[in-house]
Amino acid sequence: VVIACPGPVTDLVESHDKRFLFVACACRVYRVSSQLLESRYEPSSRRWRDEFLSIFLAFAEEGVLSLLLVGSVLLTLSQRRSSWTLTLYGSSDYEVLRSVSLASGVVHNETGTRRRPPLTCVRSSAATPPPSASSSVSDGCLCLEPILFKRLFGIDAALAKSPVVLCGLPDGRLCFLPLRPPGSRLAVLHSLEQPVVFVGASGVTDNGRGHARCLVAVGEQGKVVLIQAEKGGAEGGADRTGFTEGCVPGPVACGCVDEKRLYYSTGSDLLVLDLPEESPERDGPSVEKSRVTHAALQSPSSLNVCRVLALAPPTREVELLGLSARGQLQRITLPVDRGDAGWPNAPSTPGGRGVRDLLSAIGDVCERAAALKAAVKSKNQILRRLNQVLNICFLLTADTNTGERDKPIGCRATASWSRLLEEDSLTLTCVLDNSSPYVLERGWTLSVAASPLSGPPAAGGQSPSAHFSFPFHGLHPGETLEVSLPLAAAGQSSLPVTASCSLSFSLAGLLGEEAAALPGLQPGCVSLPLNTLTVDWLHALRVTSPAHGKTPPQSGNTSDAIQAFLRSRRMGCGGAAEAGGERGRHAASVRVSAESLRDARALRASDADAPPDVGLSLLEWLLSEALGGVSAGRRRGDGNVVVAEGRRGEEEETTPTAVEVQVESSSVAAVCGLHHAVLTRIQVPEVTESGALSFSMVSRERLLQRIQQSRVSGAFGVGVSTGTVCQSLLSVYQELRENPLIVI
Amino acid sequence: MHQPLSLFHKWIQENNELVNKWKVGSQQLSVDHYLHMYFISLLSFPQCPCPAGIAPIADHTQLELTVVYNAGVCLIAQSQFLEAESLLTKATERILQMTGDGPFASDPPVFWKTALKSVGNTALNRCVMHLLCLQWAIWLATCKLQTIQELQLLSVFETLSSGVWDEEGSAPRTKSSDIALPVMDQRRLIELLQICTFIAQGAERLSEGRSSEALSGLQSASSLPAPRTLISYTHLLSGSCLAHMSRPQMALQCYRMALETDSQCVCALYQSMLIYRQLGNTQAEIQALRLLHSTLMLPAAKEPSPAGVHLLPSSLLLQSQSLSSLLSVPSALSVLHSLALKCVLHERVAEGVEYYLDLLAALHSEDQHGVHAAGPPLPKLPELYLQAGAALLMARRPADCMALCDEVITTTLELLPGKVVLKEPEECEAETRALCEEVEDGVGMLLWVGAAYLLQGHCHTHLRDWKQAVTTYTRCFNLLVKVRFKKRGDADMMSMQGTDLCILQRLKGLSLAGRGISFTQTDQLREALRDLQLSIQAFPGGTGAGLWCGEVLWRLGRKQEAVACWERTWSFTPHFSELSLAVYLQEPQSGPLLDSTELRRRIEELSPI
Lengths: 744, 609
What we know:
A: 744 residues; alpha+beta; four-stranded antiparallel sheet; elongated; B: 609 residues; mainly alpha; two-stranded parallel ribbon; FA complementation group G (chain B); TPR-like_helical_dom_sf (chain B); FANCG (chain B)
């Protein structure tokens, strides 16, 4: 009879009297009579399924993963939202006897499939009637030697002669729950730190008493833990429970133990591990002993059977039952004497099938070798790329630490107006320049985040910022990458805009497609900041591209765009400016002392000889300078927007003492924006050129000195009347008023 | 116009069908179904179906709010409080926006205040109030009593329940198919919330020490209409308040009332037991313990609850820490253990033995009944075995006692460490929590085995098997000397009381005394004298050792010394009561005894000379 269960079956146990089969499936537990399975009754499928649901349903249990029958108690292990729950049911009336939960830890389960957590029952051999000779398994319980049992599970459990339920959770914890005395808690025995695949007991030095001396737990990634009672040395050192950990090459799909050996399948091979014999008589130094143990744990030998999914322990001395991924039930004959030849015998079956088996074994080995080779190759590739990435990371991070040196990888940008789809927009063209010795390979992305420095708050309350990312396919040393991104349409930009460039690398890209497809993978990402560029009003007022030379061609397209841009600003500040006409014009000016201008490096460079017209050169510099990485074309003030004039001083005829840059427009927004732009540019050389005194630094110093003097004299009152102090302060104030740095 | 109306009716129909199905009893499934239906219908339902008329809008919104109410109840019943809260606020906001009110504060109390104000006295008022009730339930379940107090929900709804609800009683009679049914009657919900709030507040105040304040609230709550369980809680908490105010008799009255209201209220029994213990009324305490145990062993009877209440059980609304600690009752086994111990200590040995045997049987049975309750854990199993053994010996069943002790010894002996160092008390204190808590520490196990040997020795003494007794006592003593400890300068018994060191010394004293007494019975007086003197040294104040030491001296002819020894023993006042020691560490009652009057007569005979 074939029974179709309503969902994937997670576990299956047989009752002790072999009359029933308990099936855990889709949050329900069913009880199926074995007689029915053996009968020849052939039901019609559809109705049968419904009947199955109703007749055999024992109870519902959310997230049930494993079942275990201990005496008259049916245990279920289930995974709820954030906890593991072990529930005890009476196996006759399915009444919940008890339920114990344990908060679930981090589950190292990348594949997302629900594996059946191993659930076994352990008894102390002292507590059971002498079992039938050979097997250490009685009524489904593993029988453990009393001393180990007491050490592990406590005296209470031993006194109560209680069976103990052991469960290996997918988060790596090995937990136990004594069924008696009532009220005992679920406790953690050990943590494997990887999903537990198998828990068993091995009678390593089983001398006919029928109990196991060693508990074995195997993790998914190949960690093997042997738990044994260790005798203390002769000097009376404390007896302890020994947890011996070892690692075998994983991944382990399933396992089983017999008296001396652990068999496990990695999916591609079936391996045998000799469990180290821990003889209590040998009181060697424990270090040496543990070394022996470790050595033994690291040398599994292969049986050359692949794709085994489930194993049953040897029923006879030399036979193992295995279920392969292809659905074959295999009887695997174990090599009897493995000492005589270096190789274990391939699974041998009687008669002339030997050659065929050998061939298939060779095929399996070939298949495995090819797969391994490919895996190694791809891993090498990935490591090489990772090396490049790390080099670049160090290069860029080291530079930020040493200051604003020119980075070997940097970003330059140009702002320009372009017309696209009947709409003018300000475009920022970024050029990524790779002058480092490394190749920026596939997987790197240039991301630019453009956010206005100030602007109307967006609907959400946070300032609007636009992110652009440009993945590229390799940038060799010396190459450049040019990308352009729209900053704003003419109508709706809010300048100035900061564009922060960064290089980012996604680790997910490194792993390739198959890794990226995994659902639970957190995409790791390395992000390295490059430079931050500011695009301000002066850039937006650019008329020509720098390549066109000195004479502005006044291309209609660009100036139209600028006009539109300016108009939109005016609109923004209401109709008052338009109505006001000439009277509504706003102006702002910045005065810069000629000395500081002369000292400024930028001007010196452009006007090496012939004392130039300072005002003109300043204007040219303002509109052309490349600070901050954004270059813009120069432009003559067209009267409407920018007026700069060099105001000659009185003392000298040839060179003016100060230059006044005047910004004048009918739009407040334009004035403010431009004023801000001009100020930031003038302030930048002040910072960079520490030697040069900019603005009226000298006079400021002088004024401060005078204030200081008057305060000192005022405080001591030596020979100076209050009137004179007032006088001097007044003069300071007047001077401040007369030489304003910024006049609006 | 026709289209939305038919949708409207269809919707009502669907809702009512679900509610009715619910009430009939198909349970878990319909919760999910219901939520699903709600969200789908919310999407399909137009926000403003008929802008022209006012009445349709009111109908629609009322219907929508009822559905929101139902969905909210479902969510709360499934403990999805966050989801329920956001659903409530979103729905209310939506409705209020339809009536044209502006944005609302995100702070819940402020939000609801403004919401209520803006609804005013319109027809929507009641619906919004219902949603507020659900919000109240959420606050209650998440223990935000402060917020409930802030909004004065109790007084708001008290006035409401007297006025508005009466009209409602007549309203639904119009046409049942036109009205969307609520999944839980709102009036029931409000009643439930009121009493639960009183209870939670009372518990909170009680735990903060404001007993009298709590008492007044609880007293007024006890007259509210509510399920029996909750009423009994109010009595119970009143009792606790009174007990805190040191009025034990009034507290007992309250507990009695709680029990009369709800016979399942085991907590009241437990609390009265505690009061009897506090009052020193041992017989009453034992009686209360017995009642408590038998009540705990009863299968919990299911009280039929009025329809709808089972949806939101009061346990869901009463989750505060302080309340659950007030309501906690130790497990049946733990009660049985204290019952047995009390009986043994207070001269009801035969009963006590029976209880101990019941307890051991329960511990070995597969039956896991009655262990769900939290509370003080049972003592470790060996400890229980030893106590039971001592009780059996007192009841003159030495063979059974020996068997129990044997079990302890065989299980524990092979785990004993080779040598044990006993830390000084204060030294241990620092590490106590970390190390000494370790389940089977060496010292503890060693003391168990020692005590088991001691009990066996007593058994042999009882059976007058002196030779065997001497061997067993010797085993015990040999085990005990394995423990090393650095003795502090002034190790007085007071400070040692209850520590491992004290137990160790006591065991040493008793085993030596036992061996000494056994020697006297076989006329090995020298050995006897040595042992008895060592015993007095190890643990001053052992009556048996002192008296027998005098006896041996007397027999040896050192009569003056003997008299001095006896008088010293009689005049010795123990620093602590014997009761504070474990029952198996008390002086054996079953061995050969010396008659004090006889001794006094001898002294008198001696003194005239």
